[in-house]
Amino acid sequence: MTDPCSFHTLKFNKILDFTHPTASEFVNEVSRPRENQDSRENLLDLTPEAAETRLRAFFEASGQPAYRARQVVRHLWMVPVGGFDDMTDLPKQLRESLAEQFVIPRLTIAARQRSTDGTEKFLFRLADGEAIETVAIPEGNRMTLCISSQAGCALQCAFCATGAMGFTRNLDVHEIAGQVREMRLLDPPIKVTNIVFMGMGEPLMNWTAVSGALTLLNHPNALGIGARHITISTVGVLPGIVALSERPEQFRLAISIHAPSDDLRRELMPINIKYPLADVIAAAAKFDRRVTFEYVMLGGVNDQEVHALQLAKLAKDCRAFVNLIPLHPGGARGFTPTPAETMARFARELRDQGVEVAIRKSRGMDIAAACGQLRVERLGRRPPRPPQQHGDIQVA
Ligand code: SAH
């Protein structure tokens, strides 16, 4: 941490020279499937229905009874196994022929750290060598899993370790939902009750895969987590908010506000140039479920009374609940956390304005548990990369 005001001199990357979006532009912001080197079919990128249909056809062709398909589907997500060979309720020869035709890819644990407060952080290695983070946060009866939706992130929020590493690629459906699957495969398993998309990446800039993963997370024949227990956190990608609201399930929406005026927000979050506050608040007001504002408190930057009053107005305009988040200092160069007393005062000022507010406990301080911090610690910082050429993300 050096000069707390150094954010004023931030230079924004050229790719973040945003203009206003149109609905058709959004089509370019979603993922295209990457080329699969392995010609076998990936069963974990399919819905349970699609997997069952495919497996039925496969078993039928080899003269096997149809119920075998349901047996395999059960082992994809509900009672997952590490590989076909572990499907011991199937004859060995069938397991071998399944493995010739299909894959059920794993994510490899490259690092696992446990905080004194029980929070656990995982660094997963993906098939192409990329690394992503997942954090398991126990609280009372709940076990919340904070999952990643992209390797890296293009948004470059000034206080975020992931932003500093740049964007590499979107995750596929099975890599997103697979983070939960891997928890079930641990010995002993971690039983996840809640999901927050607050790991690496911007989920609404990878909507196709995130939407597929939401289906698997929620599906009774997959991970079976209630939609109200699944929160998508976004900087305010407007077309993505519309797409999320069009899903019939009651998934929750959190919006990272972090600054209550366009001037300040543009400095902290360059995405505000493309999606200004007024539009984000209007989208939140239209969302048919109550939204949460995320507000990371940055000492001397966004924690003054004037900010509380501005934030209260925004929250009231869309009936939002406000979560005040202590800054996790690792990776947030140039910022200091707001002192606890100032946070309490800020919360009081919001409450006095009639806004519901909570101060979030900081978890996993000793294990670099904030967005992107473990990966930075393990792999070192690297200069942000330009976006890939195959249409993963087009924000220019
Ligand atoms: N792109 C999405 C989701 C990933 S970030 C979003 O921005 O909402 C998830 C949350 O972690 C965001 O609210 C983000 O602002 C917050 N965050 C990032 N860096 C942090 C830090 N150093 N300390 C505390 N919270 C941080």
List the helices and strands and how they pair.
Elements: H1 23-29, E1 41-42, H2 48-61, H3 67-76, H4 92-101, E2 102-103, E3 108-114, E4 120-125, E5 131-139, E6 142-146, E7 150-152, H5 161-165, E8 167-170, H6 173-185, E9 194-197, H7 207-218, E10 230-234, H8 238-245, E11 252-256, H9 262-268, H10 277-286, E12 292-297, H11 305-317, E13 321-326, H12 340-352, E14 357-359, H13 373-379
Parallel strand pairs: 1-2, 6-9, 9-10, 10-11, 11-12, 12-13, 13-14
Antiparallel strand pairs: 3-4, 4-5, 5-6, 7-8
The structure holds S-adenosyl-L-homocysteine.
Residues 157, 159-160, 197-198, 202, 233-235, 256, 258, 294, 296, 325, 327-328, 331-332, 370-371 line the site of S-adenosyl-L-homocysteine.
Offer a concise description of the structure.
The chain has 396 residues and is of the alpha/beta class. Helices cover 33% and strands 17% of the residues.
Overview of this protein structure:
The chain is of the alpha/beta class. It is 33% helix and 17% strand. The chain is built from 13 helices and 14 strands. The chain has helices spanning 23-29, 48-61, 67-76, 92-101, 161-165, 173-185, 207-218, 238-245, 262-268, 277-286, 305-317, 340-352, 373-379, and strands at residues 41-42, 102-103, 108-114, 120-125, 131-139, 142-146, 150-152, 167-170, 194-197, 230-234, 252-256, 292-297, 321-326, 357-359. The strands form 3 sheets. It has a 10-stranded mixed beta sheet with strand order 3-4-5-6-9-10-11-12-13-14, with helices on one face. It has a two-stranded parallel sheet with strand order 1-2. β12, α11 and β13 form a beta-alpha-beta unit. α2 packs across α3, α6 runs parallel beside α7 and α11 packs across α12 (340-352). The longest helix has 14 residues, at 48-61. The protein starts with 22 loop residues before the first helix and ends in a 17-residue tail after the last helix.
